[in-house]
Amino acid sequence: MKTRLAPTAPAAVAAQSITKTYGSGATKVAALNDVSVSFRPGDFTAIMGPSGSGKSTLMHCLAGLDTVNSGQVAIGKTVITGMSDHELTILRRKHVGFIFQAFNLVPTLSARDNILLPLDLAGAKVDQPWFDQIVATLGLADRLAHHPHELSGGQQQRVAVARALLTRPDVVFADEPTGALDSTTGAEVLQLLAGSARDMGQTIIMVTHDPHAAAYADNVVLLKDGAIVGRVEDPTADAVLAALAELGA
User: Fold this and answer.
1) Average pLDDT of 218-237?
2) How far apart (Å, rounded) are the C-alpha atoms in residues 18 and 184?
3) What is the rounded distance in angstroms from the CA atom of residue 12 to the CA atom of residue 213?
4) Structural domain count, the chain
């Protein structure tokens, strides 16, 4: 069983009464409706719900990739609501990592250079022991000179995970990170994410539609119609399936 920080520890990410709407008049849609939720430091949390429930919108707002109409979002002790694009870019560069379904690797760069890209953009030095630890943990030591087209899908996603972890971000957002992978490779990536939370203290927030993927998390936040409707602690695939069934998902 994972040891969690005391409830008094500041949240890694928190949203307070956030709303997000698209369109206007008769076409106005509330993607998020007065959502308040917090994520504990070092936890691996999955966000789930029926199609159109607001999962990706919530993640994008939490990460500062999208703005909210009202309410407040904070990453650690920093309130990001109202920040300029430049301020958000600097904050994300230092405190946030991203893992996407499409990998988003630069095809002309080697695996090593793809991993180091955030540091290069920031003009920061490489913490070589940390780089070596991540590469060893992810089993990439013998693939660093390879370009993306020379790597399997699972290896490409491992490079993306390494890139996300290298800057020691406070939180890593993962948007359907196993959606383009076969079940075996997907399980390997999920094990790596769970290990990152458990062994490296990373806070992982993952959007997924897959109950088996969610079972790797410490807890699952459930959305429906743009609102938080429940949370499953220490989830199993069966427990998540049952919770989704109650939502009509």
Assistant:
1) 95
2) 37
3) 22
4) 1
Helix, strand or coil, per DSSP, at residue 79: strand
Residue 58 has φ and ψ, to the nearest 5°, of -60, -45
Q: Which of 22-31, 62-71, 74-83, 236-245 is the least confident region?
A: 22-31
Q: For the beta carbon of residue 74, count every other beta carbon within 10 angstroms.
A: 18
Q: Kind of pairing, strands 29-39 and 13-22?
A: antiparallel
What are the C-alpha distances in Å from 20 to residues 70, 172, 188, 219, 229? 7, 22, 34, 24, 17
| Within a domain: 150 | yes
Dihedral over alpha carbons 130, 131, 133, 139 (to 10 degrees): 160
Domain containing 50 equals 42-56+84-247
Instruction: Report pLDDT for 1.
Output: 47
> Exposure string (b/e) for 39-55, b if CB count within 10 Å is 16 or more?
bbbbbbbbbbbbeebbb
Look at residue 181 in the predicted model and tell me its pLDDT. Answer: 80
pLDDT (tens digit per residue) in 172-186: 999 988 887 888 888
Say how far apart CA 91 and CA 183 lie, in whole Å. 34
75 belongs to a structural domain: no
Is position 7 within any domain?
no
- Within-domain flag for 77: no
| CATH number of the domain encompassing residue 167 | 3.40.50.300
User: How many CB atoms within 10 Å of residue 243?
Assistant: 21
